[in-house]
Amino acid sequence: QVQLVESGGRLVQVGGSLRLSCAASALPSSTDVMAWSRQAPGSDRLFVAAISRSAGDTYYAESVKGRFTISRDNANNTMYLQMSSLKPEDTAVYYCHAGRGTPRAFTQATPWGQGTQVTVSS
């Protein structure tokens, strides 16, 4: 059974940094891409960043480009999201997921994890 477990979220000050982790297990062999999305209160879940299996290709939402870095450690089945220069609008529950395709265009192939809360306080 596919399992994605996010961790690392917490309260952080504006301008601070944070690293999120996603531990994956039983991912289908056909999944090429892992990704992060986030959902702020009262808003839709939005794409944040995605990374190819080889980690050679990444793609970011414009709102986080230059501030967030996605990476993965295939040996340990873990994906990361390094976040810096955090803003109040980054406050959200962050979810990891995986799919088939490329970081720019993929079809989700796993259920959502439980998410991890990031709160950026001014």
Written account of the structure:
The chain is an all-beta fold and 122 residues long. The protein contains no helices and eleven strands. The strands form two sheets. Strands 2, 4, 5, 6, 9, 10 and 11 form a seven-stranded mixed beta sheet that branches. Strands 1-3-8-7 form a four-stranded antiparallel beta sheet, with no helix packed on it. β7 (68-73) and β8 (78-83) form a beta hairpin. The chain is globular, with a radius of gyration of 13 Å. The termini are far apart.
How far apart, in Å, are the first and last alpha carbons? 40 Å
Given helix and strand content, the structural type is: mainly beta
Radius of gyration: 13 Å
> How would you sum up the global shape?
globular
Percent in strands: over 45%
Q: Helix tally?
A: 0
Sketch the topology as an H/E string, one letter per element.
EEEEEEEEEEE
Low-confidence stretches: none
A few lines on this structure:
The chain has no helices and eleven strands.
Provide keyphrases for this structure.
122 residues, mainly beta, seven-stranded mixed sheet, four-stranded antiparallel sheet, 0% helix, globular
Set out the fold topology.
Layout: E1 3-7, E2 11-13, E3 18-25, E4 33-39, E5 45-52, E6 58-60, E7 68-73, E8 78-83, E9 92-102, E10 105-108, E11 116-121
Parallel strand pairs: 2-11
Antiparallel strand pairs: 1-3, 3-8, 4-5, 4-9, 5-6, 7-8, 9-10, 9-11
